[in-house]
Known about the structure:
There is one protein chain. This protein is mainly alpha-helical and 335 residues long. The protein is 79% helix and 0% strand. The chain has helices spanning 2-22, 26-30, 32-39, 42-48, 50-54, 56-59, 61-64, 71-76, 79-102, 107-132, 145-167, 175-203, 206-214, 220-238, 242-246, 248-270, 279-310, 320-334. The N and C termini lie far apart (55 Å). Mean pLDDT is 87; it is low at 314-323.
Amino acid sequence: MAWLAWGAIPIGALILFMTSYLVRRRWTEALHPVFVGTTGLLPIVALAFVPVLLVMKDVYPAIADSASLPPFRARWFVPWFFVLRTVIYFLLWVALAEWLRRSWRNDEAMVRAASVGSIVWTLLVSFAGIDWIESLEPEFHSSIYGLIYLSFTLVNGTAFVIGAGLLSRWSIGPSRGYSGLLLSVLMLWCYLHAMQYIVIWSGNIPKEVTWYVARSESGWQFVLALLSFGQFVFPFCAMLGSRVRSHPRWLLALCALTLAMRGFESAILILPAVHGLSFTMTAVMLIAALLFLGLILWLAFDAALARAAEDMPPLAAIWPRLRRETGIRSAGQGR
């Protein structure tokens, strides 16, 4: 759960990095060091997943007892193949991050890396969500589950990048635009969860419905309600006001709330599938894991951000093509 809550940050930041190359505005330049520093955490996140692979038979029932699964699933969850897929995911993500970093300041290379990378990233994240989370309950399947994990990483990465940008010493531009970005990914997250619920409810298939039944009893209904309110209802209503959207402190607070809610969503996705847990022991272990892994990633991010800042030219040094496009747009608006 701790790995899912924190490890999704650099994975989600990677697609934002690509988007900044395709939709070039001030954030392309202003957040570039933050993007480089955040995606630079991918090797550390990959190493942090090694303990999960070492005990994967204790974590994933599909791997421990693949003989009880249908033939395709049984072959899909062979231990060596599961490890190989995980390694491929991280190798390709690290390669994409390095490709984006090397493409900086080269217009054609930036578009090429971001275009190809967006397609590859979407496919990899969808498969990873099915492998790492959905397979915790091998009897359950949702065709939209890969997109739900995609929205999980996207929300996580967006909140962290915006929050880190606000805390940095650079001027990243007006808060209003970043508030719109955060609101848009939260609405996407809510839409995908709502679609999965509606499809499963209308289908009324017992193997799928039990996934929601387990999360609607034994106290999990309160966690689910807290997640719904704290992750969508409150941020959505708050960002309807122009004062909240344009105030950096309000935006920073909403980013912090979003990151905190990722821990609750990780709990909802993972823990109901595990039986016989001790509440006290589980709470202590989770707090320790969250603090330990979070501290390691923050120290690594701080070091990566310092290195990225050394190579960062002044904010006004925007490439000529962008200056020409800005001049054209300004002239058009004037007319």
